[in-house]
Amino acid sequence: YGDIPGVRYKVIQVNGVSLDEMVRGRKEKPVR
After folding, report:
1. Domain that holds residue 29
2. Greatest CA span in the chain, whole angstroms?
3. Within 13 A of 20's CA, how many CA atoms are on the CB side?
């Protein structure tokens, strides 16, 4: 059960970073 929460936490962290980067990149230089 320790691996499941760890993976979930990792996914959440990755998603958060991705979203933050996407929002930042979009605001910095909107591709669309």
Report:
1. 1-32
2. 42
3. 6
pLDDT in tens, 1-32: 456 666 666 666 666 666 677 677 666 665 56
Helix (H, G, I), strand (E, B) or coil at 3: helix
pLDDT of residue 24: 72
Domain count, the chain: 1
pTM for this prediction: 0.27
Give CA–CA dist 16/12, Å, rounded: 6
Of residues 3, 23, 26, 5, the one with CA closest to residue 15: 23
